[in-house]
UniProtKB/TrEMBL annotation:
Pathway linked to the protein: Cofactor biosynthesis; thiamine diphosphate biosynthesis
Organism: Pseudomonas flexibilis
Entry's EC annotation: 2.7.1.49
MF (Gene Ontology): hydroxymethylpyrimidine kinase activity; phosphomethylpyrimidine kinase activity
Domain Pyridoxamine kinase/Phosphomethylpyrimidine kinase: 17-253
Name of the featured protein: hydroxymethylpyrimidine kinase
Gene Ontology CC: cytosol
Group of enzyme by EC: transferase
Lineage: superkingdom: Bacteria
GO biological process terms held by the UniProt record: thiamine biosynthetic process; thiamine diphosphate biosynthetic process
InterPro entries listed in its UniProt record: HMP/HMP-P_kinase_dom, PM/HMP-P_kinase-1, Ribokinase-like
Origin organism lineage: Bacteria, Pseudomonadati, Pseudomonadota, Gammaproteobacteria, Pseudomonadales
């Protein structure tokens, strides 16, 4: 049997979305598209569709630890991607797992709201992510509404939110697209004072799983060894193409097309 060079493995700790638009399915598809292998650990089960989330249940801490530890013992983890955690206890669970992965880059997508606006955890989960997980993460990728929650600035600008959050994290990518601007502006902030912006054409409609797609693609690029600024641009470009080619299989938001039609 032929043995090929192994693809980089990305450990994903995210919720399950039964519509397939966001959560672990988004992680898996986006990482496959980067040439990586996704190792999905389920943190929560949700009741949601392409319109909004109706309910969720966070898994027992012991089950999450068992899933992740089995993967960590067996596979060489090149990066970790966080999605929905849903509880403060799950934040501490991830922190415990990261102690087993020194030097492995962590991409933190602080999932606090579904695309339709429904809550995926109380605000104190966001504050726990900020206080405990941001310090061990390579980068966080909140959209502006999430950044405002994390910074406790309900009407804060991206610059104001970044100023409040950078003491906790080395790099912060605040994504645009949640207002009525013609052009979407994404801003990368670094603790050393450097800033970088990337703009793209605003696409019509709203999308389910765009944040998961971006964070997973970024984790994949880092797992492949790409430098952070370049990895951010690669992930943004990939995500925009996924949204451009999105489809609307249900009654709600568009779902990004993360894999080509002929993917097997």
């Amino acid at each position: 049997m032929n043995r090929h060079t192994s693809r980089p493995v990305v450990l994903c700790l995210s919720g399950h979305d039964p519509s397939g638009g966001a959560g672990l399915q988004a992680d898996i598809e986006a990482l496959l598209a980067q040439g990586c292998h996704a190792a999905p650990t389920v943190t929560a089960l949700t009741v949601q569709d392409t319109v909004d989330v109706a309910d969720f249940r966070v898994l027992d801490r012991a089950w999450v630890l068992a899933q992740a530890r089995a993967v960590i013992a067996d596979l060489p983890i090149a990066a970790v991607k966080l999605g929905m955690l849903g509880s403060v206890e799950m934040v501490d669970t991830v922190l415990e797992l990261m102690r087993q992965l020194p030097g492995v880059p962590l991409v933190c997508d602080p999932v606090l709201r579904a695309g339709g606006g429904g809550s995926l955890g109380p605000d104190d989960v966001g504050y726990a992510i900020r206080e405990r997980l941001f310090p061990v993460a390579a980068i966080a990728t909140p959209n502006l509404p999430e950044a405002r929650i994390l910074a406790e600035l309900p009407n804060g600008t991206p610059d104001e939110c970044a100023e409040k959050l950078l003491p906790y994290i080395r790099h912060l990518l605040i994504t645009g697209g949640h207002g009525d601007e013609v052009e979407v502006v994404n801003r990368l902030y670094s603790r050393d004072g450097q800033t970088w912006t990337s703009s793209c054409q605003r696409l019509p409609g709203s999308y389910h799983g765009s944040g998961c797609t971006l964070a997973s693609a970024l984790a994949g690029r880092l797992a492949l060894g790409e430098a952070l600024p370049s990895a951010v641009q690669s992930a943004l470009d990939y995500t925009w193409r996924c949204l451009r080619d999105a489809e609307a299989p249900g009654h709600g938001q568009y779902i990004p097309r993360r894999l080509p039609l002929d993917a097997s």
